[in-house]
Amino acid sequence: MKAILTLNGGSATLKVALFEAAAPHRRLGDGVIERFGVGPRLRLRAPGLADHLQDWAKGEGPSDAQAAFHALWPALKARHSDLEIVAVGHRIVHGGADHAGPCLIDAAALRSIERLSPLAPLHQPTNLAVLEAAQQDLPKAQHVACFDTAFHRGRAFETEAFALPRHFYEEGVRRYGFHGLSYASVLTHLRQERPDLADGKIVIAHLGSGCSLCGLDQGRSVATTMGFSALDGLPMGTRTGTIDPGVLLYLMTDRGMDAKAIEDLLYRRSGLLGLSGLSADVRDLEASDQPLAKQALDYFCSRVAVGIAAMAGELGGLDGVIFTAGIGENAPTIRRDISRRLGWLGATLDPEANQEGHRVLSTAGSGLALCIIPTDEESQIAIQTAALCGL
User: Fold this and answer.
1) Residue 337 belongs to what domain range?
2) 214 with 93, same domain?
3) What CATH number is associated with residue 240?
4) Is 148 a catalytic residue?
5) Catalytic residue among 64, 148, 232, 376
């Protein structure tokens, strides 16, 4: 059987999945390697087969995403020896102004992707490392780049531009938006389950280690919180979100911090981790009795609610909020505290439905629909790859 392999690499995680080429919505198996360099674990799953697990001791096993693919691929290949991988779909975080949709990866596309690495330093180099490994191990397959930024292309000038001299916009300094593969996946499922809501004015809240909001009107991205880079907008696990640029000038001129030190501060030492001083993980903060943990969570929920309200203003109304990703799908207290702050918009949460993680979270009389739709970036990558390759 001909199949599509999808690759989704993060800073400490590599997710893979297999889909039938002729029916890219049909998942044949998936896997993940987590915790590079600190005791990696490999898990492979497939319908009708027992899970395959492999653990390495700390300091052993793959230490980065490229090594993770080289470790994962032989095990995946042996488990699915009946499959012929004809195409590989790669999640690429930043497509810049040049990529409004998926593309076959050739030398020119690779150069354009590499040039964007400074705008997504936590993700783009990892995406490229996984791509290189996959091209080495699967040289006969077609390799396709699927971009997180592409979903947001075509928005109005006023939502993309910064108030800088116009030539900066023409040179590509603009708000691109991210998490597009996640938003496309959620929208696909919402159209199947709630077509009335999918065609309305909605906000999808992608809340995970990275967080953003997207305001959609009739299925089209109108506004989103992430901008030129994946730093902007909501506070995240280790990233600041929106910050007064004057703070950065102060850090440079009065504190003597250079670009590298500021990049490390903004991307790796801020967000929930920086606010709490404890952890970037919501689960750790919820379990803690430290006041700083509660303050960090309160700050997070407040900023998300304010962001949703701003989206309502850009959309000219709001019919519903869709929670997705790791926090959005699995943290009922976070959903509760965000929804409570949206009461003035008519949101009324059903406590039992929220605690049990039902797809519909709002009460029958709520003026705002509240839902959970799990994200599935891998299936979206497979669908885009199959379409581009004519499979």
Assistant:
1) 195-372
2) no
3) 3.30.420.40
4) yes
5) 148
